[in-house]
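User: Teach me something about this protein's shape.
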Amino acid sequence: MNVNLRGKTLEVLESMIKHGYAHTKSEAIRLAILNFEKDHEEDILVVKKLDRIDKEIKEGKRRLLNSKEALGVYAKHIKG
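Assistant: First, the predicted structure itself:
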């Protein structure tokens, strides 16, 4: 695979090598990809959890609460 980098992306890549984070451009790109995955791992888990909750609601295994049910004894403190 060939990747053409220029501008800011090339600057970042060269900086990673200059500061010793990576020895080669290929290594720097691999590190960047792994770091991206690490940064977004929680987002992926949240989406999976929300999808599972939606499925359970559709299957009737879970129900949604209205605002009064969710607030419970505190509902009386809400005006309106």
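Now, about its shape. The chain has a mean pLDDT of 91. Residues 8-77 form one domain. If you'd like, I can walk through any region in more detail.
User: That's plenty for now, thanks!
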